[in-house]
Amino acid sequence: MPRTRIRIPVHSPLIPLIALTALSLTACSAATAGGPAASGQSAGAAAGDGKSARGPAAQVTVAPPKAGLPVTVTATGGTLARVKVVDADGVELVGRTGADGAAWTSERKAGPGSSYTVEVTSRGTGGTESTARSSVSVPAAELVNKLTLAPGKNTTVGVAQPLSIVFDRPVTNKADVERQLKVTTSNGTEGAWGWVTDYSGRDRADWRPKDYWKPGTKVTLDATLDGTDSGARGGWFVRDYRTGFTVDSDSRVVKVDLDRKRLEVVRNGRVVTTIPVSGGTPGGDKRSWRGTAVLMAKEGTIRMNSETVGLGDAYNKMVDSSMRLTWSGMYAHAAPWNAAWFGKANKSSGCIGMSKAEAAALFDALRPGDPFEIKGADTKGVVAEGNGYGDWNVSWTEWKKKSALA
Question: For the structural domain made of 5-137, what CATH number should be given?
């Protein structure tokens, strides 16, 4: 018998449930007007009265799906033999049938604006097997939340790079969102999510290991957020996200001693480079930050304007080999105009300056994600978690408390 496609508006207040008409596929074919019923089947049964020689078919209903809730299918007067729910992209929703066989629930939540085709095979109490099909949809979301992931997909990063998610809109249901964020590593790395305020003022969730990554670690994030409500003023997520990156096979740690005006590159535990530098001028707003900053981006030759970081007209010039360390404007870069002070005094406007040749060599040697461990007696303070990737300036015990599930 050909399957009948039934479309019932899910918004209708008069129809709280969608009933799937049971069509026997085990012993009949369609009856035409005045034509014969299938062999072994009464004319009444072939005409769709829901009965056969073995008894009535089960009555199947699909609750109109709502965003954030699973799709549910139930059978009255029988059991569910098979349920298949497929979204508009052809992706099947996996689900489970209850112990009594009368109810099926999808493992995933319904996403706003989604539509689903539901195909159900049921068995009546007398053994009659029937199959029916229907289409249902979910209202679109009024507010949609999106996100930005770092690092980029399929990139290779240094040992201090956290997995970072910045949300476009506020996230008040942080626990609900965090439950949908699954991190997998190639070597079982211990780590945890922590919620911080990004320098932009937006909500941000970072996953960092207990210690720096082991070189060569592969990291994958599955963010199954479709159908998750981010809370008041945040709106719904309407898609899933997946990304992954690899940690470089070499470990590089940059150690900056502002008291000694010296920078060292430690590669796989051994000092391979020593560079005289000049850091931020002591005693005011031009001081450098201390603590662990993470190389965010290698920006190359850029224009630096002191007015953009609240330092008036102190400088406005093109700068080579620029390596961003914070959102607030601290870089490591070439500073040939400050050559007289390299290794002798801190005379910069907050950045870590060095000769043009040594800055170029350092620029080539490092990757985003490499840590800069900065110390010095006269600094502005410790790099905050949201000012770049200052996550490492929080102890592991305190970091774990930043999880919404702690």
Answer: 2.60.40.3780
